[in-house]
Specification:
Immunoglobulin-like; five-stranded mixed β-sheet; three-stranded antiparallel β-sheet; elongated; 434 Repressor (Amino-terminal Domain); alpha+beta; 35% helix; 6 helices
Length: 220
């Protein structure tokens, strides 16, 4: 995607300042990727102004915020300076390649039988998996909501299922798990890409983690 940069005389670009700070701290792109969970190719693209690497500016907002905060910048200020540098005229653009589809589902006896069979098979598989699970293995974790990874809602509810004895954390915050292994947590979103690391641990510390990225675009 093409970006038009505004020339601000006497002021370095956001990307060059981020790069300079990273170099000053002796941090490699690989180390920054590990810490921010943003791929190094995107970090390098931010530093060098290769905005065509991103499908839209809304992604850049989240990545700039996360990268700036990691390097010690005020996240709100660095995002504000980025917007000032590049303008805000197309922040509401849809993602490249995004399409809307209308599903037409015809209910037939064969479809019903297939759905029932899938439910039965899924139940059997789940039962066997739960029965076979023990403390020597990390607990399973399944994210059931949200289904959509792009939203214009300020808040979302993250829901999932794991072992009823597991300890669940979302971004290092412990979340209650009911006696069926279900968990739920309402959380506010920031404009851009919001990343959530969801972990399920057993009593021996064996854990399984999943990463959820939600794109909050209030102009969608």
């Amino acid at each position: 995607m093409a970006f038009k940069r505004k020339e601000i005389i006497g002021k370095k670009s956001v990307g060059s300042r981020l790069k300079a700070e990273r170099k000053k701290r002796g941090i490699s792109l690989e180390e920054a990727e590990e810490a921010t969970k943003v791929r190094s190719k995107y970090l390098e693209a931010i530093e060098t102004g290769r905005w065509q690497e991103f499908p839209s500016r809304i992604y850049v907002l989240g990545y700039v915020r996360r990268y700036g905060e990691y390097l010690g910048f005020n996240p709100d200020k660095i995002v504000s300076e980025f917007k000032e540098e590049f303008g805000e005229n197309d922040f509401g653009l849809r993602l490249k390649g995004e399409k809307k589809f209308i599903d037409h589902i015809v209910i037939t006896p064969r479809l019903i039988a297939g759905v029932l069979a899938a439910i039965i098979v899924g139940g059997i598989v789940s039962y066997v998996a739960i029965s076979a699970n023990n403390l020597s293995k990390p607990p399973t974790i399944e994210i059931t909501s949200p289904k959509e990874l792009t939203t214009n809602q300020k808040e979302i509810v993250i829901e999932g299922k794991t072992s009823k004895t597991a300890i669940v954390e979302i971004n290092n915050q412990i979340i209650p798990v009911d006696d069926q292994g279900n968990f739920s947590q309402k959380t506010a979103l920031m404009e851009g890409v919001n990343q959530f690391e969801i972990k399920a641990k057993n009593r021996l510390g064996k854990e399984q983690a999943k990463t959820l990225e939600i794109l909050y675009n209030p102009n969608k």
